[in-house]
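[Automated response] Your request has been received and processed.

Submitted sequence:
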Amino acid sequence: MKKIMLSTFLSLVTIVAFAQLPTFGIKGGVNFAQYIQPGYPSSQFLTTFNGGIFADFKLGSFSLQPALNYTGKGGNYNGKETLTDAQGNNFKTVNTLFVQKLYYVELPVNLIYHVPVVIGNIYFGAGPYIARGISANSTFTGAIYTGEVVTQKEDINFGNGDHDLNAIQFGADAIAGLKFNNGFLLNVNYDLGLTNDMVTKPYTTGVSKSRVLGISIGYCFL
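Generated structure:
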């Protein structure tokens, strides 16, 4: 899978040599991130953010658009926990919340098709991305044995340890939006993680993949 993603990525990049001089832009907005774990319920959506810069190499009605983004991913899990006393009797039920926030530097390269309209152009496209984990943390809110509700926050490492996350993530990106004649744009994108975010060790198993719906506004310097 990684070899296929890298081959596609490099093929798209080589098209830049045949394109016109690029235009550049900035954009930022909000992410709705989720974890997908086969065999387990998916996480609820976590609201985070995105921001970055991009270049647009025009190829007639098409363009090649590499970008460099700082983007938040992750998910949250709501549940309930029933506490028991020394005799095994239930004496309290509390709400629990587990939130995991991941932050990546992401490089997508999208091939985009433009449809001219009176106020600008509508665009849509897709392509691969590669992302590098920068920082991550988790927050758990629940009860201890006394029934007291506490909140615990912990930093998470990207690496090869039993409790680490994979530092490199590969995936596919879809993008659509409206670019106005004055350069302002409205953008929607969907990131589909294709590689396992969890490090699989003899005593640490599991598959967790990221899904992110992003909504952003931006400006393309004409």
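Summary generated for your ticket: The first helix runs from residue 2 to 14. The mean pLDDT is 84.
If you did not submit this request, please reply to this message.
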